[in-house]
C-alpha cells in the first residue's frame, strides 16, 4: 500500500511540472496556456491514487480499460468523477461505457457507434466522442484510416446520442521528432478539412508524456498524460501504485 500523503506530494510536484512544461510549450508556439488542457491518465493506478489526484482538483481521468473504470468507480462511489475512455474499445463493452463513461476518445468504427448509440438510448444518456484517427503506420495503433474520416463524419450525423467534438490520435513512436510532428500535423489538417465540411471538431486530443510539446506546437487542445504525472506503470494488469516504491 502506498502512503496517500506521499502520493499527494508526489502528484502535486509532477502536476506542477507538467503544467509548467505545457505553459512553456504554449508560449513557444505563440499560444495561450489556457488553450491546452491536460487529461490525467490514471490507467493501472488504483483508486487511492485517483483520490490523491482529486485532492489536486482533478476530476476527469483517462482510462484504457472499461473494467478499470468499473472497479475504480465502485471504489470511489459518490465522488464526482468523469471517466474518459481512451483505449481501443470492443463492441461488447458498449453497455458499461454507456453507463459509466462521460466521454469516448477512441471511436474508430461504425460498428462501435451502433453499439454505443443503442446502449445510450437504453440508458437515456448521450456521450461526447472524439474520433480516433490512425496517423501512424505502426500495426499496433488503432484508429480510423484517414481517408475514411469524411464519410465516417457524415455517417455519424445519424447517431443522435453521440456528440462528436473532435479528433484524437497517437503519434508514431520514434526518436525522429519530425516523424512524430507529421502525425500531429496530419490530424490538425484532417480537423480543418472536417470543419470546412461543416463538422464541429473543436477538440484535438494529441500528445502524451513523451511527445506533448510537439503536439502543442501542432495545435493540440488537449494532451493525455499518464507517466509524467503518476509515474511509471509497473503492473499493467492489476493495480500497483507505482508511486514512491
Ligand atoms: C496510456 C495512454 C496515454 C498516456 O501515456 P503516457 O506516455 O504514460 O503519458 C495516452 N493516450 C493513450 C491512448 C494511452 O493509452
Automatic annotation (TrEMBL):
Which domain of life does this protein belong to? Bacteria
* UniProt-listed Pfam families: Ala_racemase_N
Look up the coiled coil feature and give its residue ranges. none
Provide this UniProt record's keywords sorted from A to Z.
Answer: Pyridoxal phosphate
Point out residues bearing the modification N6-(pyridoxal phosphate)lysine. 43
Tell me which Gene3D superfamilies the record gives. Alanine racemase
Q: What range(s) does the Alanine racemase N-terminal domain occupy?
A: 16-233
Role according to the record: Pyridoxal 5'-phosphate (PLP)-binding protein, which is involved in PLP homeostasis.
Q: Which HAMAP family match?
A: PLP_homeostasis (MF_02087)
**Which family does this protein fall into?**
Belongs to the pyridoxal phosphate-binding protein YggS/PROSC family.
Q: What is this protein called?
A: Pyridoxal phosphate homeostasis protein
Originating species: Dyella kyungheensis
- Read off the lineage from the record: Bacteria, Pseudomonadati, Pseudomonadota, Gammaproteobacteria, Lysobacterales
Amino acid at each position: 500500500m502506498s502512503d496517500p500523503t506521499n502520493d499527494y506530494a508526489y502528484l502535486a510536484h509532477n502536476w506542477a511540472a507538467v503544467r509548467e512544461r505545457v505553459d512553456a510549450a504554449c508560449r513557444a508556439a505563440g499560444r495561450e496556456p489556457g488553450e491546452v488542457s491536460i487529461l490525467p491518465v490514471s490507467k493501472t493506478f488504483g483508486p487511492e491514487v485517483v483520490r490523491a489526484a482529486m485532492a489536486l482538483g482533478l476530476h476527469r481521468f483517462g482510462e484504457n480499460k472499461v473494467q478499470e473504470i468499473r472497479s475504480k468507480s465502485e471504489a470511489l462511489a459518490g465522488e464526482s468523477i468523469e471517466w474518459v475512455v481512451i483505449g481501443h474499445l470492443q463492441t461488447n463493452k458498449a453497455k458499461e461505457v454507456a453507463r459509466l463513461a462521460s466521454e469516448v476518445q477512441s471511436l474508430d468504427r461504425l460498428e462501435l457507434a451502433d453499439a454505443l448509440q443503442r446502449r445510450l438510448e437504453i440508458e437515456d444518456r448521450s456521450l461526447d466522442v472524439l474520433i480516433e484517427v490512425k496517423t501512424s503506420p505502426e500495426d499496433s495503433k488503432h484508429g480510423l484510416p484517414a481517408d475514411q474520416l469524411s464519410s465516417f463524419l457524415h455517417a455519424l450525423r445519424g447517431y443522435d446520442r453521440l456528440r462528436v467534438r473532435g479528433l484524437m490520435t497517437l503519434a508514431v513512436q520514434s526518436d525522429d521528432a519530425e516523424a512524430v510532428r507529421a502525425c500531429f500535423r496530419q490530424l490538425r489538417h484532417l480537423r480543418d478539412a472536417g470543419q470546412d465540411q461543416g463538422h464541429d471538431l473543436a477538440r484535438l486530443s494529441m500528445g502524451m508524456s513523451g511527445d506533448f510539446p510537439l503536439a502543442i506546437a501542432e495545435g493540440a487542445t488537449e494532451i493525455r498524460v499518464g507517466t509524467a504525472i503518476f509515474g511509471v506503470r509497473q503492473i499493467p494488469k492489476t493495480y500497483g501504485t507505482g508511486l514512491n516504491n
